[in-house]
Amino acid sequence: MAKLAVLGHGVVGSGTVELFLKNREQINRKNGIDLELGYVLDIRDFPDLPYSDKFTKDINDILNDDEVTVVAEVMGGVNPAYDFVLSCLNKGKSVCTSNKELVAKKGAELLKAAKEHNCNFMFEASTGGAIPIIRPIHRCLAGNDITACAGILNGTTNFILTKMITEKMSFEDALAMAQELGYAERNPEADVEGHDACRKICILSSLIYGKHVYPDTVHCEGITKLTLEDVAYAKSWGGAVKLIGSVKRTEDGKILPMVAPRFVCGGCQLSNIDDVFNGIMVWGDGFDEVMFYGRGAGKLPTASAVVGDIIDCAKHSKTILSQMWEDSTDTDFIADYKDDSVSVYIRVQDSDKAQIEALFGECEYISREGQPENELAFITPVMAEKTVDEKLSALSGNVLGRIRLFEG
Ligand code: HSE
């Protein structure tokens, strides 16, 4: 009999215990393992739960129990999660986590510690909620040269955008609802400012390209500057605005990770992914294109991915080396997004078509219901992002909206 310890009994932690205990018998039988719940670490008391006797407030109870072979870290945040996880790995206990901030900031170091102590550090739940994406990338698609990956990586913002578009709900009300449903981060600024999606694209980029991509090297924009007017123009253009995390290899051999709202055309599968769902597309030389879809946040969807990792940790006593990347000390391999070629939606007040075309060339104009007479919205031809900036600074009038198109 081996023991599982769960660090944290919040939304994901309680879901992890619930799913594990509910399915424990079949999990053990089907996987040929014998795992029981040993400990739940939390500073709070939960006296009324059927497993209240498993609670501890002291990480040393877990560290000093040799029967604990698998630890699920579902506390969130870097501290004290980082110290706890590192201590567990240093004791040879495999750790799985849903904590994207921890993986994005400390992944290389924790993977190295796991390797040194012949155990595993797994993080399927850190990206895409219930969607299997980490394993497919380092296992199923491992034979390919992956050229790009992009998707909707944050359930909260996709939920908010969907509610704003389909129900005309205010940003604040939609965010409050996402918090109630357990989708949002403790500090929802991480969701709406794009930091959560940024951490996830860092994890995917690191895994795909084999070198740690740190969040502070990635250009990141959230959804707080989006207006209902921009959303209406996207709809009349035949698409939708989505917060997209993306990474691609550039012509000079660097990589370009980025998070920003994008106009996604109606023909692209990502435009139809609504509510809390996430969708992730991957492109590579052998398989061309694959897409992953599912619930990107929430108690049991996230727990589903954590429990999958718990089982894998219990089954694989040695380090899974494909789930690995090296640390990076430079940023030379990250391309400047200003050099990227983009087509951009622009909404401008008090300008005119003659000036727009003189600067940008032939553009596609879009209209919307209730469009004021002094407002124009257009899509530029493809050009370097820094060229768009130069032309915009020469344009008379006020620029009210500026959203890149998704090129996938
Ligand atoms: N706040 C995150 C989201 C939770 O909304 O996607 C899942 O990582």
Descriptive notes:
β15 and β16 (about 375-380) form a beta hairpin. The radius of gyration is 23 Å and the shape is elongated. The model has no long low-confidence stretch (mean pLDDT about 95). The chain has three domains: about 1-130 and about 300-315, 3-Layer(aba) Sandwich (Rossmann fold); about 135-295, 2-Layer Sandwich (Dihydrodipicolinate Reductase, domain 2), CATH 3.30.360.10; about 340-405, Alpha-Beta Plaits. The protein has helices at about 10-30, 60-65, 80-90, 100-115, 135-140, 155-165, 170-180, 190, 195-210, 230-235, 300-315, 355-360, 385-395, and strands at about 1-5, 35-40, 55, 70-75, 95, 120, 145-150, 220, 240-250, 255-265, 275-285, 290-295, 340, 345-350, 365, 375-380, 385, 400-405. The longest helix is centred in the first third of the chain and has 21 residues, at about 10-30. α1 (about 10-30) crosses α11 (about 300-315), α4 (about 100-115) runs parallel beside α9 (about 195-210) and α6 crosses α7. It is built from 13 helices and 18 strands. By secondary structure, the protein is an alpha/beta fold. L-homoserine (HSE) binds next to α6. L-homoserine binds next to α6.
